[in-house]
Amino acid sequence: MLREVALRVTRPRVAVLHAVHAHPHADTDTIIQATRRELPEVSHQAVYDVLRALTDARLLRRIQPAGSVARYEARVADNHHHVVCRSCGAIEDVDCAVGEAPCLHPSDRHGFSVDEAEVVYWGLCPACSASTDEPATARKG
Questions:
Q1: Which H/E stretch holds residue 54?
Q2: In this structure, are residues 14 and 56 in contact, taking their beta carbons and an 8 Å threshold?
Q3: What distance in Å separates the CA atoms of residue 102 and residue 113, rounded to the nearest whole number?
Q4: What angle do CA 51, 58, 42 make, to 5 degrees?
Q5: Measuring CA to CA, which of 21, 70, 94, 140 is 20 to 30 A from 120?
Q6: Quick check: bond before 135 cis, omega within 30?
Q7: Are 115 and 96 in contact (CB under 8 A)?
Q8: Digitized pLDDT (tens) for each residue of the chain, 141 residues in all
Q9: Cα-atom radius of gyration of the chain, to the nearest Å?
């Protein structure tokens, strides 16, 4: 994968790729911890630098739902969306709402050439829904 996008194959890059593939939607701290299990001497800064390089090369995607820290995923070959739990912050992938990218069309493009649509669905995951008696509509907002 690295060679295909003209990046050198280095141990930190390989370890970070493994970490993100193993932990979809992981935050940076989780990726650092997972990377250090494979490569104990890697620094925080090296992981940040690798995440930036892999995101710039489109091998990873950086997402940041409102109120959340940045998270990374390896699913980059499509224009999918996300569903986020308002309570615990769990994130899952949701396939494109309609058709191919950008899969949603704005009512007015204002002259832009639109190539992507980002949608975030918010709600409660099954575990959080089961653990509360409070209606989801009362928590909204």
A1: helix 44-56
A2: no
A3: 10
A4: 20
A5: 21
A6: no
A7: no
A8: 999 999 999 999 999 999 999 999 999 999 999 999 999 999 999 999 999 999 999 999 999 998 889 999 999 988 788 999 999 999 999 887 665 655 667 777 788 887 777 788 899 999 998 887 555 454 444
A9: 18
Count other Cβ atoms within 10 Å, centred on residue 5.
12
* pTM for this model (two decimals): 0.79
Q: Tell me which DSSP letter residue 72 carries.
A: E
Identify whether the C-beta of residue 74 lies closer than 8 Å to the C-beta of residue 62.
Answer: no
DSSP, residue by residue, 15-44: HHHHHHHHSTTEEHHHHHHHHHHH-TT--H
Strand order in the sheet with 71-73: 26-27, 71-73, 61-63
Q: Which of 120, 129, 10 is nearest to 71 (CA)?
A: 120
CA distances from 57 to 30, 31, 33, 61, 72 (A): 21, 18, 23, 10, 13
Q: How far apart are CA 28 and CA 73, in angstroms?
A: 11
